[in-house]
Amino acid sequence: MSYRESAVKKAAEYREDPAPLMLGIESSCDETAAAVVRAGREVLGTAVHTQIPVHRLYGGVVPEIASRSHTERIGSVVRAALENAGVTLDDIDAIAVTYRPGLIGALLVGVSYAKGLAYALEKPLVGVDHITGHIAANYITYPDLEPPFMCIVASGGHSHIVRVDGYTDFTLIGRTRDDAAGEAFDKVARAMGLPYPGGPELEKLAKGGDPEAFRLHTAFNEGEGFDFSFSGIKTAVVNILHNAEQKGEQVNRADLAASFQRAVTDALTKKSVRASREAGLSTLALAGGVSANTALRERLQRECDRYGIRFCRPDMRYCTDNAAMIACQGHYELTAHGPSELSLDPNAASFLQMM
């Protein structure tokens, strides 16, 4: 029996198993992660190696360094996840891996490792889009959550409003036209002299500031469409800082950070809530690295409460890149579409960007 025939056979067995085990592998950017998830939603064990201390020296992610670190760590991270879950590779029924979007070199490490593991173990392989993985993080936090619902995905590289009609059925409603929300956070933080990663540091600074101190807005974000634009808001902050520096004046950085954060969270909240209401959906979910931002979570909760919409957001540990969400979405991808081919290649873009 060929590997492909074996994978298809075992994928069919996976569908019939009430408690199958999925090993998830994530290496799209600067964190090497692995997780074991039972039946798509029960996380048995996880392991993560973060590269933040290394990349902080350069003020951002260096792709070559990230790829090398993934290569060095991926084996030990997978072993740690299995050990934390109390299982062995023989117990695993299938392997899910992030294959898009992300840094090509970093993705290649995870995909190559997962391919080799799947082939050696004769287990089904399933490729997962990182963005749909972030959406799936909500299924882990909310065991009763089922499609359809609207989801706002906000991360360092992506800002999308996605209609989730099924576990593997997505429709892009809106997207950023320029910078992603997380990217804008990081760039503004860098302009303010805050350390990498900038988003969390800017949020800390904003807690002591007045969000009404500076009026930062773009007419585009106040329009009737569902797309976003954050580049202009970012540039406005940079200009305020540069103008003050040239005049020898001091800017209240906490006020500026709070005003910037307010402008971004307002745009994300208003458009996603309106998209939910116009689509007649009673649930709005939040996903992506920026979903860890407390101000955004609170703003969305208030607006959802106002309109009687259920608001879901992942547990903090599943907001940033992790492998549990990849295993979760991998469960639904394998169940719906069967195993991926061993010719699976990494791709820098999400399929959502191609819609």
From the spread of the alpha carbons, the general shape counts as globular
The name CATH uses for the topology of the largest domain is Nucleotidyltransferase, domain 5
CATH architecture of the largest domain: 2-Layer Sandwich
- Report the total helices: 11
Number of separate domains: 2
Radius of gyration over all CA atoms, rounded: 21 Å
Top keywords for this entry?
single chain, 355 residues, alpha/beta, Nucleotidyltransferase, domain 5, 2 domains, five-stranded mixed β-sheet, 11 helices, globular
What can you tell me about this protein's structure?
With 355 residues, this protein is an alpha/beta fold. The chain has 2 domains: 170 residues, ATPase, nucleotide binding domain (Nucleotidyltransferase, domain 5), CATH 3.30.420; 167 residues, 2-Layer Sandwich (Nucleotidyltransferase, domain 5), CATH 3.30.420.40. The protein is 46% helix and 18% strand. Helix 3 packs parallel to helix 4 and helix 6 packs parallel to helix 8. It is globular and about 75 Å long. It starts with a helix and ends in an 18-residue tail after the last helix.
Topology:
Blueprint: H1 3-16, E1 21-26, E2 31-38, E3 42-50, H2 52-56, H3 63-85, E4 94-100, H4 104-121, E5 125-129, H5 130-141, E6 149-154, E7 159-166, E8 169-175, H6 181-191, H7 198-206, H8 231-247, H9 253-279, E9 283-287, H10 294-307, E10 310-312, H11 324-337
Parallel strand pairs: 1-4, 4-5, 6-9, 9-10
Antiparallel strand pairs: 1-2, 2-3, 6-7, 7-8
